[in-house]
Amino acid sequence: MKITTEDIRVAFHAREILKGVSIESENKELVGIIGPNGSGKSTLLKCIYRILKPDAGSVYLDGEELHSMSVKDSARKMAVVAQHNYYNFDFTVREVVLMGRAPHKKTLERDNARDYQIVEESLKTVQMEQFAERTFSTLSGGEQQRVILARALAQQTPALILDEPTNHLDITHQIMLMELVKKLNVTVISAIHDLNIAAAYCDKIYVLKEGNLEGYGTPQEVLTPELIRRIYRVESEIVYDSHGKMHILFL
Ligand SMILES: Nc1ncnc2c1ncn2[C@@H]1O[C@H](COP(=O)(O)OP(=O)(O)OP(=O)(O)O)[C@@H](O)[C@H]1O
């Protein structure tokens, strides 16, 4: 599925947070949004996953304007792993993941064997199947993050929106998550802080600073020492290992 934003503008209390942001992901592309703290990454993603209506501009899913669709229709097209405090969920892990099936159900339709099978598979994929009966709020931050990813997988959508998905995860699970997301073969738009993760996994990167797009292209095109200096005020060096993989060293 193709996701497009066109000239998105958002202001809070007369302060402009997004100043006309247009991005595009082709079908099955993994698109990274990078930028310093407060640059507007989450705000842009919130406009895409419909928790925030922009003051101006539009979001299109395969050419269809987001707000012209029902919430259920857009939830069948896109699942979200956002940065929230999840701790208040007083549900079991299995129940949380089952919520991912809701957009596929009619009003009052009961969960069936297939829904439970999808939930078990999703939990296995994120290696959380042994936690199915646990109360969600008793999990660690990283475990919660993986359960929320399982919920998004259970939603079986052609697009995923991720807001710093590797936040809370140890290095094993960071790599697991990015490898998994890459293999899903769906469209992904993800805010990413770690530039080496962005370099390793993104097909395309957009750079946000103070609500403006400051760069766009493949990781090789975008992640140059000049851009990193301009955006983050940090000196860096780009090296390629024996596998041809790009690494950013911060000096
Ligand atoms: N509801 C709101 N009311 C007022 N200001 C807000 C609101 N939501 C976000 N902001 C401000 O908008 C700016 C952009 O926030 P946003 O969360 O989009 O940044 P970000 O790039 O995702 O940052 P981070 O890397 O720290 O997660 C910040 O200065 C934030 O304080």
Describe the structure.
This is ABC transporter ATP-binding protein. GO terms for molecular function: ATP binding. The protein is α/β, with parallel strands linked by helices and 251 residues long. The termini are far apart. Strands 6-7-8-3-9-10 form a 6-stranded mixed beta sheet, sandwiched between helices. Strands 2-1-4-5 form a 4-stranded antiparallel beta sheet, with helices on one face. Strands 11-12 form a two-stranded antiparallel ribbon. It is built from 9 helices and 12 strands. It has helices at residues 41-48, 71-77, 93-98, 113-125, 141-154, 171-183, 195-201, 219-222, 225-232, and strands at residues 3-12, 15-25, 30-34, 56-61, 64-65, 78-81, 159-163, 187-191, 204-209, 212-217, 236-240, 246-250. It binds adenosine-5'-triphosphate. The site of adenosine-5'-triphosphate has 11 residues, from helix 1.
